[in-house]
Amino acid sequence: MKIFYLLSILVSTLVCAQFLERYPENQVSYIGGDVAFYKDFHQILKDKNITPCENRQEMYVLKVVVYEDASIKMAKEQNAEKLEKNKCTYETIKKVLPEMTGWNPAIYQDKKMPAVAEFPIYLDDLFENFTDGYAASKHITRPEFPGGLQKFRNKFTGAIRIPNLDNTNGEFTLRIAFEVNENGQMENVRLLDKTGYERFDASIIKGIQYLKYKWKPGSFHGVPIKTNLRIPIHFTFH
Q1: Residue 33 predicted with pLDDT over 90
Q2: Which site among 81, 137, 158, 210 is 20 to 30 Å from 41 CA-CA?
Q3: How far is Cα 124 from Cα 172, in angstroms, rounded to an integer?
Q4: Looking at the DSSP assignment, which residues form a beta bridge with residue 191?
Q5: Treating both helix axes as pointing N-terminal to C-terminal, what angle do 2-14 and 198-209 enclose, rounded to 10 degrees?
Q6: Please, are residues 86 and 59 in contact by the beta-carbon 8 Å criterion?
Q7: Contact assessment for residue 41 and residue 100, using Cβ atoms and an 8 Å cutoff
């Protein structure tokens, strides 16, 4: 029962209120990917003759729900302070979004489903400073674990209670995925691979959930942002 409970947690972190909290791996929310998204955004700024913001340092992470019919809805900002600080960028995004037509619905279990897509917007990159091939991800500083990734792997493997697996030997690598939020905390932990041993897979998820160490968060133009990470972990059984 514990195994099925943990597996249900994995599903519920992805599917919430009949929409996906993030796009499945290897799927893009905009046709042509991030490069096409920012290229279209830049072109619309030019075509509509939109004026740059007075504060050129504003940065806002756009969140939209992409629906099955490729229509979208901008997520409501819950942080009033963040909204006020980046109000011009927020209002500019609202002018641009209705003109963008390349949205690509997510596929989950062979069906189209609404899903949340995120795009960091730093308008100073998207006016006269725009360059071909631009994507915000190329300018994001990745999160850092104190002491480096190998220390994280050591802390992680030390937190796992490995169950007895009869007649198990050999070695394999699993990819774990999670988000590091603006405060350096790990969220939405999940496995991208399965071993075939459900008890072992469940123990990995449980071990990560109990790992309370904080990261130095990723940043975009110096502003901390939530960042997705995928890390391979190697296991050996004798």
Answers
A1: yes
A2: 81
A3: 45
A4: 176
A5: 60
A6: yes
A7: yes
Give the amino acid at 203: S
- The residues facing 73 across adjacent strands are 65
Residue pair 206/199 in contact by the 8 Å Cβ criterion: no
Q: Are 6 and 12 in contact (CB under 8 A)?
A: no
- Only one residue has tokens 């905390």, namely 185
Asked if residues 73 and 65 have their Cβ atoms less than 8 Å apart, the reply is yes
Beta strands in 83-141 (DSSP E): 106-108, 111-113, 115-121, 140-141
pLDDT in tens, 71-82: 999 988 888 998
166-220 residue pLDDT tens: 555 567 788 888 899 999 998 888 888 777 777 777 777 777 777 778 899 999 9
Residue 131 has, within 13 A of its CA and on its CB side, a CA count of 5
SS3 184: coil
Q: How far apart are CA 106 and CA 142, in angstroms?
A: 26
